[in-house]
Protein 1
Amino acid sequence: MKDLARLPSLNGLRAFEVAARHLNFRLAAEELGVTQGAVAQQVRNLEAQLGLQLFHRQSRSLFLTEAGRGYVTNIRKAFDLIAEATRVLRPEPAHLTISVAPTFAAKWLIPRLPDFTDAHPDIDLRIVASDRISNFQTDAVDLAVRLGRPPFGPGLVAEHLFDQVVIAVASPAALQRLGPASAPCDLLGLALLHDAHDLWPQALDLIFPDGAPAPAKNIRFNQTSLAIEAAMAGQGIALTPQFYVSQDLAAGKLVACFDLELRTGADFYVVAPRKVRNVPHVTAVRDWLRVQARRI
């Protein structure tokens, strides 16, 4: 333990390693979050402790001396040993990436994340919100939740999560502003809020089999979540999978309209490669999704 007293400053060693990597005190200072002068001073102090010159300093360049080249190789090995010892002592959470549609993330997954974090503190869940179909290899995605019909592709396993039952919703304030509605056509006094799925033509055919009257107005969004937010703001009637708004309906923020239940034949599935990385954690997330889906 007496040798510990002879060790140079760890701050000086760190400044030396970073400066040796960049061969530039300014870039080293940016990486370390200190001033250029501080890095230069730490390196000078280290050289004074060692009694050796580690760098050749020229007006616009920096070069390692022969002693510096040999020293930095061993210093890096020492830092790697410290990092590995720390990793073993305090392992990082497992990283698992799940790809979901933006509305699924906003309206269903994110409100339930505290439950997931409490149940699985060892899993660092990374959420990629995109309507684009993920490539499990090139995008480093472990799981995906997608709306569609299986099969989703070769080498993929799909597990049913939700039926898609589409309903029409509006805010109580919008319905009150409209006044008493004695027939479904009266509700068309409100704007129809469309999203990228464009299900209103199918919905209107179901509600008005003999032909639908023209709505007062159409407003279009590229995400279902935006149409839902517009409906809650009293701007019209939105179509949405029922499970997206179950809590809003229970809280009285939205009201179901038209007595509509539209089924398109496409449902929500958890999709994963047949051969997954990190099987225990993928299984844990898939099981958690299944349990949460049953609670709706």
Note: The chain has three domains: 2-89, 94-164+267-294, 166-262.
Protein 2
Amino acid sequence: MAPQPPLAAQPLVVTDVGMTFGAGESAHEVLRGLTLTVAPGEFVCIVGPSGAGKTTLLRCLSGLLRPTSGTVSIGGRAVTEPLAEIAVVFQDYRGSLMPWLRVRDNVAFPLEGMGVARSDRNARARESLAAVGLPDVEDKYPWQLSGGMQQRVAIARAIACRSPILLMDEPFGSVDAQARFDLEDLVLRLRRELDITVVVVTHDIDEAVYLSDRVVVVAGRPTHVVDDLTIDLGPERDQITTRATPRFAELRTRVLAEIRGEQGGGGAAPAPVLGPSDDIPAAAHTPG
């Protein structure tokens, strides 16, 4: 039998995932029939309205939450608990960084549980902080840094684990606009330099289009996949020129129309401005 490729070289597969909280008359179905595949090295944004269950989906992808139905897997291995192959950056750096630990120790903290020797932990922490543009803050405490810098520390902690898959939950929502743009470009650079798979959940349509190779649109009650849209803006992105292109405007208009249509905002969704696309599976347009 041929040896199986490492999990890092295999896709993240979501198959017919559903999530219901409670039971009986009090049951609340949040997700229904979500199916998607993220290829190794791909950057995918999952975008939808606030309250659509995006964080619930991310927790299922990370193994922090088991779906009620369906499966999440990597290379045929079910993701039923947190794996070393998957790192997570949470929405609010203020709740994820430990204020009593110095920055270096915050970044190195997960490595201790992975059995990494102390000297190697510190070396990885310094390397990761340098990668996110913070080479000189390792002896500071998180509260001594700006919000954007604290979120960079949270990203450094994730990449220090050297996981091939990075999941991010609304990672830039707690910082100002300029810091948000800088962090978006940072993550694009890290994805390219580290050759990692990135999945971001967000409600920011412009952000999703700017970052992604693909945007998966989720909406409805219960939440289901509305569209799986290839973003053909090229590998190099720039905050000014990319966002100013007509193609960027077309893509964001399509996503916005689909979300508003599913929410009932102004009636049925307008016809997609791009027209039919051969690279979008028909099943992606069918409610789960």
Note: The chain has eight helices and ten strands.
Protein 3
Amino acid sequence: MSKSSKRAAAVSRKARIEEMRRAERARERRNRILTITVSTVIVVGLAGWGAYAINNANEKEEQKAAAEKKPVSGEKTWDSKKLGRNHVAEPVKYPMQPPVGGNHNQAWMTCDGTVYTKAIANENAVHSLEHGAVWITYNDKAADADVKTLTDKVSKTPYTLMSPDKNQSGTITLSAWGHQLTVEKASDARVEQFLTKYVQGAQTPEPGAACTGGLPAS
């Protein structure tokens, strides 16, 4: 091969190599652009999702706070500041039946989802209310099916207790410290609302106090 032919071949190889390098650099640029674009989309998407999640969480907290302030329809309330909280040994004459607060015995009834089949002392149950429990009572008008439904619900709910009370006027009564609701049926949606709001709710004089280790069923 002549020198001119060799020179031409070398120039051609150099041109091809340069063209391959340009093509490779172009691919690298495209890949970088694609990577940056995808990363930007992901970051923007995550930021958008994060903002949505935060807004959604804030909205739920606001709804919860609003629900906590709003009374359950039909409930009665008493000024908790006027309900005594002294420990006494003698029986207490309460102005409402079942009581929703006031002076009480130093021993509380076990209220860790505890179902009592016999009536319990008001003075011990009120101490349970002070610890943030909800006390469900029922009289002879309550249907067996409703008693069974409430028994199942209470047994699965810490900081609740349940017992019969033939002296109350309402069929089914839910009591928390300073709050009380009377319903006719266990299926009433307000039962769950009351439990959600007042089990260890904001009304609790001694939040976090034990509901275990109290008096057992007699």
Note: The chain has four helices and six strands.
